[in-house]
Structure prediction request, 396 residues.
Amino acid sequence: MSPLAGRTPQRLRTHERWLAELTAIPTASGREDRVIEWVLTWVRRRRRSIGVAADPAGNLFLHQGPVTARTGRIPAHRPLLITAHLDHPAFVLREVLDARRVRMEFRGGVHDPYFEGAALEIVDRSERSRGAKVIAFDGKAKPFKQVTAEVRGGTRGLDLGDIGRWALPRPRVVKRGGSRLIETHACDDLAAVAAALACFDSVAGRRGFEHVGVLLTVAEEVGFIGAIATARVGGVPRDARLICLENSRSFTESPIGAGAILRVGDRLSVFSPALTNRLGEIYLDHQKRDPSFRFQRKLMPGGACEATAFAAYGFESTCLCLPLGNYHNMVDIDGVLGGTQPAKLGPEFISLDDFHGLVVMLLIAAARLDGAEVPTLRERMELIYAESKSVVAALA
Prediction:
């Protein structure tokens, strides 16, 4: 039975609940522990079919080891790893200056104008949340930008490593332009984590899918640190194929609500062509079978992706992504950088249809990537050659 058969309305609502919960969790590069605990709890509820291991950098590998060990099944295909990162741009507390002020560094990429006078939320180890405001900003500090913030109610109970983030409303689902959107703190990349788990939940323990696993990385927002670490020390099987999931800034030519995206490259590189092309062939074939299936194929140059990092270390990798609004919580980036609009911060947002479509794309890849029913690009070229070579006299 196809893994798509289990996508009942109840399951879709469950996936949306995971999406809302994950994207609301405070997280930062090197401080992903709250998201990690959510994932570990999710795995414990599925311990008969899913196992988990952490590498020295703190990346999580979700595998089907318990099933394989119990049944003796050997995967028939090369490993397929679905990857996503566990962090989002945020502040990390570095020093309590006095009874009202703290110094924090910002780990991630946000343009300078957005920091001036920004309202923040700081979450301490006991999950207490308190408001704060940026009163000084140093955009040239190294290795990360720094702010001084005044804390409402005082600094008692705050400690080094506490997470600060922009003060934003709670996640909500809204209808806009005929689409259902979720507005939330951190789609990038926790929406992708939700999609990876939704796919894995559907295939784990099923015959024929033993080769599928999930890799959740740390510290992506400060330079792919988790991905590079595991690539350097051999944490990823050398013959693995990696489908890296992202949330990438939407442009006019990559609209929100038009489908999740097969991303062929980013601002740094073009991804592994054989894997990218193979996925494109499979998705086009699926679209012929099911006209309701929608996807986009785009470059998405608005940022960089872990697929670039893995490819740089010799792995076959590509990316599927969700078109994202308010990238890194920045409203109207072009207007702000062009000097025509004031800097405002807002929730990131994605289309729920795009999110569900991304899960479908992952399930299709898991089921059909190694199948022979869709001709490869080379096979298509050979067919064209055989049919039309006679027009060249020397080849007739």
Notes: Residues 51 and 65 are 6 Å apart (CA to CA).
